[in-house]
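Service request form, structural biology core

Requester: graduate student, group of Dr. S.
Request type: structure prediction, single chain
Budget code: on file
Notes: please return the result as structure tokens.

Sequence provided:
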Amino acid sequence: MAHPQTQTFPKTQQQPEQLSRRVARATTGVTIGGSLILLSGITLAATVIGLVIITPLLVIFSPILVPAALALFGIIAGFITSGGLGVVASFIFYWMYKCASGKELPSVDRFREKFDKSSEQHISYR
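Core staff response, request fulfilled:
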């Protein structure tokens, strides 16, 4: 049975941390931690105050804001849809031009060959 090799590391003496370094580290931690807690409290207070002020305004103006938002959504969706359909239509017209002018796309010939082969195989199986 093989014994695992153990490495021996030179023992270094750890010097005890100086009191001034420990005090500085604790002071820094308390200062940074306290500052972050203070900032989070201010953020929470500002959020609550903002909601208290905005909520009644949203309730009062909701008969105006909701239809306006729906109309804006409809307008944006219409523009996006019309743009997409325009791109598709331009590709279809391009393909039709290539086919009508006799300059078929290379992929059309490959599809025809594959279709002819598959139809011949289908007929031969009957």
